[in-house]
Structure formats: C-alpha cells, structure tokens
Write a structure and sequence with these properties.
Blueprint lengths: L1 H10 L4 H33 L9 E11 L4 E13 L4 E9 L4 E11 L2 E8 L4 E10 L2 E8 L2 E10 L2 E8 L3 E10 L1
Antiparallel strand pairs: 1-2, 1-10, 2-3, 3-4, 4-5, 5-6, 6-7, 7-8, 8-9, 9-10
C-alpha cells in the first residue's frame, strides 16, 4: 500500500524525492540562465560602448592649479560631467573649475571618427566659443581648441577612475593642470 501511495505521489509530482530533483533542476536552469544573460549583457555593453570615449561617462571631481598671465598660480577645485553616446564615439563634456579669484565653465561636444576628434566648445563665463580638432584613442586625447584670438592645447588622459587634464594657452589664462577621480 505504501508503494502505491508513493507511486501516485510521484505521478502527481508530490513525492519528496521528486520535489528535491525538481528544485535542483529549477535552480540549475536559473543559474544557467543568469550566466547566459550576464555574458550576453557584457558582450552587448562592450559592443555598444567600444569607441574611444567608452568608460568615461559619469561625474568626476578633483583639483589642481591654474596659471594666470602674470605667471601666478592658484589652487582650483573642479568637477566634470561626461555623457557618452554614439557607441562611445560621441562625448558631451562640462568642466567647471574655481579658485578664490578665478573660475571657468568649459563645455564641449566631440565626435570621434577613426582616431580623429572634432567638435565645438564654449566657455560661458567669458562668452567665447570655437572649434576642437585633435586625435585620441585608448584614453589619451590631444586636442587644439581655437576661437578668434584664442588657441589652447588640451591633453586628457583617462586610466580607470583617474583622469588628468592639462590645458596650455598663450592668453590671460595660461593653463591648468587638473587631476580628477570618478565620483
């Protein structure tokens, strides 16, 4: 009689041994699905963001120094925001830095094609804007920002969550050296 109850329970899916096997099978399927989903998502993410700006998106903060036309330097605090699009080939950037007596608000829109970079920039506190041209890949970018009566060279290097920005010019603003970390 016990054998008949066990048979009927197994057929109905209520046998204790059957529940254990079902539980292991369900858990194994879920684990397998999770692993497959992870690899598909990883492959999609790396494909979706494979351009030179991939990995730069987000908020960054830090500081450095600004050099003025008289050669004096001041400590500055900075924050940057990067929005990356076009599969890692487009970058919208804002960089705001300030000291006790100096402030600049730099915005840029840059597009990468091959190793070439081009785009536009503006500095809102001085109402100046112009074009950007340069080269970059693998976290290293060298750009020249130009406008009527103004030219600056910009070197930007990103390694993981650390970034270095060096700006050099021959105007009232001589340059800046900035170190940022992703917030």
């Amino acid at each position: 009689m016990a054998h008949l109850r066990a048979y009927r329970a197994a057929v109905d899916g209520k046998h204790p041994a059957n529940n254990a096997r079902t539980s292991i099978l369900v858990t194994t399927r879920r684990l397998l699905f999770a692993v497959v989903a992870f690899f598909v998502a990883s492959a999609s993410a790396s494909y979706a963001q494979s351009g030179p700006f991939a990995g730069m998106a987000g908020n960054w903060t830090g500081g450095g120094t600004v050099t003025l036309d008289d050669g004096s330097t001041e400590r500055i605090r900075c924050r940057a925001t990067y929005a990356v699009g076009a599969g890692g080939n487009g970058l919208n950037q804002t960089l705001t830095c300030a000291s006790d007596s100096y402030k600049f608000n730099l915005s840029s829109n840059v597009v990468a094609q091959g190793g070439a970079l081009s785009g536009t920039w503006s500095e809102s506190s001085r109402n100046i804007n112009g074009n950007l041209e340069g080269r970059g890949s693998s976290g290293n970018f060298q750009v020249v920002a130009s406008a009527p009566g103004f030219t600056a060279s910009i070197a930007l290097t990103t390694r993981g969550n650390k970034q270095s920005v060096v700006i050099r010019s021959e105007s009232v603003f001589r340059g800046a050296s900035i170190s940022l970390s992703r917030s």
